[in-house]
Design brief:
Layout: H1 16-28, H2 32-35, H3 44-48, H4 50-54, H5 59-67, H6 71-78, H7 100-113, H8 117-123, H9 127-136, H10 156-162, H11 164-170, H12 187-199, H13 202-209, H14 211-227
Helix pairs in contact: 1-6, 1-7, 5-7, 9-14, 13-14
Bound molecules: iron/sulfur cluster (2 copies).
Length: 236
């Protein structure tokens, strides 16, 4: 049984075989062997991890759990802790050459591909951001921080947007002083991005967690690809 219940849920009702199947799916990924080489339990990754300072979260526990093949605890983390990671990869300082952040990437992908309710819940507030990035191929620029653009980010966004110019000027690097920084993506690049997201299964993952978002993106992408001469591409 799991030794730690981070979420208030212990998933005792989920059949062990189902948890094990998801664990095996993570291990079967071709990147897995690069991300885990055994774990000294030294905690260096925790010292480097920004998320560990703010959440009840530990990259060491992720690496240990996966190394020990503790399937119950893995399932618990798969439904909770993996969403606390900021994917900065500072934990790659690991002396054993592990990448706990990489393991978390694999776990997130498996959670999304399998449409876990916890993954849908964790990603629920990011639909507009994902739409902006995937439809245009570029980033969310600071001037988009308007309460009417991202209402799902909560009421504080309105306050931030009111004084955005001041907030940006308070940041030290010169390049962050603007509120409009965003790069332009040319037609060839956006076509390539749409094809990559189609061929690598990213669109299938979006479909698992947010069917509404998938349908909107599908319309945008299929139309653009047709214009570029890829009229045989279908995201269905
Ligand atoms: S993953 Fe690496 S840094 Fe973290 S506890 Fe294990 S051996 Fe140490
Ligand atoms: S990638 Fe995740 S686990 Fe690794 S240091 Fe960054 S936040 Fe922590």
């Amino acid at each position: 049984m799991p030794t730690l219940d981070l979420s208030g849920r212990n998933y005792r009702d989920v059949p062990y075989e189902q948890k094990e199947r998801l664990f095996e799916e993570v291990k079967a990924d071709m990147r897995f062997d690069d991300y885990l080489h055994g774990c000294y339990d030294c905690g260096i990754c925790v010292a480097a991890c920004p998320s560990a300072r703010f959440y009840d979260f530990s990259p060491r526990k992720i690496a240990q759990t996966v190394s020990r093949e503790d399937v119950d605890l893995f399932y618990l983390f798969l439904n909770d802790s993996v969403w606390d990671c900021s994917q900065c990869f500072s934990c790659d300082v690991c002396p054993r050459k592990n990448s706990p952040g990489g393991l978390i990437t694999l776990m997130r992908e498996v959670a999304v591909k399998n449409g876990l309710a916890s993954a849908q819940e964790a990603l629920e507030g990011y639909g507009r951001v994902v739409y902006k990035i995937m439809a245009t191929g570029t980033q969310v620029s600071p001037d988009m921080l308007q309460d009417n653009a991202f209402p799902d980010w909560g009421p504080h966004v309105k306050d931030i947007s009111k004084n955005l110019e001041t907030w940006r000027r308070a940041l030290p690097p010169e390049t962050l002083h603007t509120t409009e920084t965003s790069w332009q993506v040319d037609d060839k690049t956006i076509t390539e991005l749409y094809l990559i997201w189609h061929m690598t299964g990213v669109m299938d993952m979006i479909k698992e967690v947010d069917e509404g978002l998938f349908m909107i993106l599908q319309d945008v992408m299929e139309e653009r690809l047709e214009e570029a001469g890829y009229d045989d591409i279908s995201f269905d």
